[in-house]
Amino acid sequence: MTYDLLFIRRRSGMTLLEAFDERAADYDPDAELALMSVNEEQRAVWERIMQRITTSIGPVTSEEYPYSLTLWRDGAAGHLQLDYDGDSASVEIPYRYSGEAALSMATEAYRIAHIVEEESGLTGFDFQTDRPTTPGDVQRAAARLGGITDWAQENLTGGGGAGQQ
Question: What span, in angstroms and rounded, lies between the C-alpha atoms of 88 and 128?
């Protein structure tokens, strides 16, 4: 289970939630996943995203999979993953950060979200805070991330306090 920021391409005149609803309506859990097919422009967007994250936030590693281009960021704030397929993207944060660690992680995730939006033209949404990632609410995101981390530590792992990296 992860804390997710989701990104989608909106058609003209469509609200963000309508775009997500349309995508959800097309989802068939029994269908085989379609292989990723990024064009040259989308691949260039990915390269710019990776370059900007590396330059403004810190080093990353990346891999190409049949269904997405994936980037991992392991830094002082912690670990997160960015998946991109040209028409959508997601940032995933494991639920293991609370307190100041959750704030650092949420801040980094939102910085990455803004880079993804600026470079790709995708629009991001944080369903945990029920807000678009721009302008977003990093404090609220951190509170949600930390709150779920604390709850999981207390209720699913037998207690012992929240983890941090």
Answer: 18
Backbone angles phi, psi at 37, to 5 degrees: -140, 85
- The tens digit of pLDDT for each residue in 102-137 reads 999 999 999 999 999 999 999 999 999 999 999 999
Are 101 and 164 a contacting pair, CB within 8 Å? yes
Closest CA to 2 of 80, 60, 63: 80
Q: Is residue 116 part of a domain?
A: yes
Give the type of residue at 74.
D
Please state the three-class secondary structure of 25-55 as a single string: HHCCCCCCCCCCCCCHHHHHHHHHHHHHHHH
CATH assignment at residue 54: 3.30.1400
- What residue numbers bound the domain in which 114 lies? 2-11+37-155
Residue 70 lies in a domain: yes
For residues 141 and 106, give the distance between their C-alpha atoms in angstroms, rounded to a whole number.
6
Query: Is 7 within a domain?
Result: yes
pLDDT in tens, 154-163: 888 766 555 4
Domain count, the chain: 1
| φ and ψ of 111, to 5 deg | -65, -45
